[in-house]
């Protein structure tokens, strides 16, 4: 779709406008949450949060991710990832070897994660209901 056609559709559809406004609200909220998390939470808690989010999306206890990628995602040097992963592994929450991560104790990882885990998802669920919820008669006018 060209930008001109998209702009025309946007002008003609209040539903599309409202949906995009909600999406932008969620995106800005997630960005603010990420900035605050990076500034105020220790690397171990941020790594635990990131691993939980990855596990949620991968639908698996096992995934491959490099120190370099984790350092980029967490905004730290690789040595910071090494130390943080070592702490989580020492507490038997994860097993980490050559980029292969296994979540051993999800409940423990939840306890180790900062309070930011789930905040982005909660905001998304609040502002952008799933299609199944939108189709439900009780939610059509609410």
Automatic annotation (TrEMBL):
Residues 45-111 form the HTH crp-type domain. One of its GO terms (biological process) is regulation of DNA-templated transcription. It comes from the Bacteria. SUPFAM superfamilies: Winged helix' DNA-binding domain (SSF46785). One of its GO terms (molecular function) is DNA binding. This is Transcriptional regulator, Crp/Fnr family. It comes from Candidatus Contendobacter odensis Run_B_J11.
């Amino acid at each position: 779709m060209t930008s001109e056609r998209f702009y025309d559709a946007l002008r003609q559809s209040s539903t599309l406008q409202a949906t995009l406004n909600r999406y932008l609200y969620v995106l800005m909220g997630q960005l603010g949450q990420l900035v605050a998390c990076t500034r105020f939470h220790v690397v171990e808690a941020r790594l635990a949060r990131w691993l939980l989010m990855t596990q949620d999306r991968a639908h698996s206890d096992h995934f491959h991710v490099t120190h370099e990628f984790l350092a980029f995602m967490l905004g730290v040097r690789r040595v910071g990832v090494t130390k943080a992963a070592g702490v989580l592994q020492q507490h038997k929450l994860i097993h980490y070897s050559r980029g292969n991560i296994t979540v051993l104790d999800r409940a423990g990882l939840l306890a180790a994660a900062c309070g930011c885990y789930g905040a982005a998802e909660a905001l998304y669920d609040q502002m952008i209901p799933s299609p199944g919820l939108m189709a439900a008669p009780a939610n059509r006018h609410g």
